[in-house]
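Input.
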Amino acid sequence: MGYDQIVGGIPAEPFDHICALYRGRDERDRLMMPFLRAGLREGDTCLCLAADGESVELRSVLGRDHDVSKLIVTEPRNAYLRTGAFSGEPMLEFLREWSRSCFEEDGRKFARLAADMSWALPLVSDPFLEDLTAYEARATVWARSYPQSCVCMYDLDRFGGNAVFSVMRAHPKVWMSGVILENPYYIRVDEPVTSGH
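Output.
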């Protein structure tokens, strides 16, 4: 498998947890869709955590040229908000179960996750950012538990600078302007991660 080409031709690696910063849906799709299409082409299991109301369209678009039998597309109410409100531990258990299914039950060699984080916009507050950042830090540990690559997508036109900086610090890598970089602001998961308030 071409691990050096897994994110739309941009170098990334197994065990990555990447914060993708973009502007607008068009740019999001230019990043996210090649990432998922490449996975489907390679036979990877793919999970797309779509924005509200987009799951049917995204599955249809991805299914035009690829076998989508190993693609799961779901929306916030069935993932981040499946308990009725955001809580990090239930979401992490959702991810752990997905990974166990991919690798231990199905015997997959690689998996990909792309998550549109726009569901969080109505919830943004200082306490919520503390919780979300703590969740993202723990998600880094989860991402390293299997050969998988995970991209969390934050729209710079919608999230304020404080929110972006807070969650960015929980991701070892940042993807911006077509380049994936080691994140100089990343705080190791064995250090306290807070929004700074």
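The longest strand covers residues 148-155.
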